[in-house]
């Protein structure tokens, strides 16, 4: 990303995004609660490097994306966008919106990403959600793609992704009206997987992350690779890659350790090889 915006809140000294590793889990926290964690250039830059860290560091097996202060993300910062409209960056070619890595558009993690949502996840907030694999929300969370209300376009990928993730007619209505959904409705539609009491989304996400981190990392990453590779394809186009990816897992040392641990009635010790 080349465009930079000077933040007006110079008093804010904490980084716009916090990245913390706990064991095999990386926790990425969008951190501009005074603006409902609206996306800044700095936040997106930190998220981009966090995604590289997830993909490159074998010690990291799962990632959680959350927001500070009881909010997930209110999308693009509409205040700074008034000072420097994104259209300028699109037009002068300094920003290519075909890949928005921070928002996971045109770029995916090779490890599972769990969203822990509290409060609003609006516009860019619901857009990045669609790039996550497992989604947990507090019961007061709200979701929506509000761009059309401001005559903007959901540049984070929702016009393509949302109709693939929830029923077409609901996706069309959300994208075209900008209406928001509560967490129970989002769960009913399959946009999220879990609704928990407010304030407990991160704990639930952590519980799921720990379950995944205890599994064979090669198996987990291979399953995810096949899921990503086969998206939108006829199943007959997928079996060759499915078999190749699966066979590599069966050939690993971890694939011997798992059944051995079962026989010996102990927890497996996976090493990712
Ligand atoms: C193109 C993508 C993306 O698709 C575009 C968007 O995301 S458009 C964003 C639309 N957002 C909204 O419609 C949400 C607006 N907010 C609300 O509706 C409500 O605030 C709320 C429901 C979220 C919360 O309501 P509350 O009642 O709880 O709180 P409220 O009192 O309203 O607010 C509290 C204070 O928070 C402030 N606030 C809230 N939301 C925002 C916001 N979105 N922006 C700024 N401030 C916000 C509110 O004003 C209150 O403050 P006060 O001081 O108390 O008044 C684009 C997504 C990211 C873009 C990239 C960003 C970085 C870039 C920079 C560049 O220079 C180049 C371009 C780019 C890379 C840019 C490119 C486009 C994106 C990818």
From TrEMBL:
Pfam families: ECH_1
Matches recorded under InterPro entries: ClpP/crotonase-like_dom_sf, Enoyl-CoA_hydra/iso, Enoyl-CoA_hydra_C
Record's keyword terms, sorted: Lipid metabolism, Lyase
Name of the featured protein: Crotonase/enoyl-CoA hydratase family protein
Recorded family membership: Belongs to the enoyl-CoA hydratase/isomerase family.
UniProt superkingdom: Bacteria
ATP-binding as UniProt keyword: no
SUPFAM superfamilies: ClpP/crotonase (SSF52096)
């Amino acid at each position: 990303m080349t465009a930079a915006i000077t933040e007006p809140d110079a008093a804010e000294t904490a980084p716009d995004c916090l990245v913390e590793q706990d064991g095999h889990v990386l926790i990425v926290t969008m951190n501009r609660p005074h603006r409902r964690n609206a996306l800044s250039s700095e936040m997106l830059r930190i998220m981009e490097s966090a995604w590289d860290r997830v993909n490159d560091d074998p010690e990291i097996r799962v990632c959680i994306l959350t927001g500070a202060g009881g909010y997930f993300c209110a999308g693009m910062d509409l205040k700074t966008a008034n000072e420097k409209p994104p259209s300028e960056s699109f037009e002068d070619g300094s920003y290519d919106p075909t890949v928005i890595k921070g928002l996971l558009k045109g770029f995916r993690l090779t490890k599972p990403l769990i969203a822990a949502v509290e409060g609003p996840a609006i516009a860019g907030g619901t857009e990045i959600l669609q790039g996550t694999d497992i989604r947990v929300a507090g019961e007061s969370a709200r979701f929506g793609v509000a761009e059309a209300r401001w005559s903007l376009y959901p540049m984070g990928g929702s016009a393509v992704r949302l109709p693939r993730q929830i029923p077409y007619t609901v996706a069309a209505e959300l994208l075209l009206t900008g209406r928001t959904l509560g967490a129970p409705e989002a769960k009913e539609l399959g946009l999220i997987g879990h609704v928990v009491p407010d304030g407990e989304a991160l704990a639930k996400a952590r519980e799921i992350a720990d379950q995944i981190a205890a599994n064979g990392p090669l198996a987990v990453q291979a399953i995810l690779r096949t899921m990503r590779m086969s998206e939108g394809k006829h199943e007959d186009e997928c079996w060759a890659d499915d078999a190749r990816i699966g066979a590599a897992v069966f050939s690993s040392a971890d694939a011997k350790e798992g059944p051995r641990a079962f026989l010996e009635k102990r927890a497996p010790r996976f090493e990712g090889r």
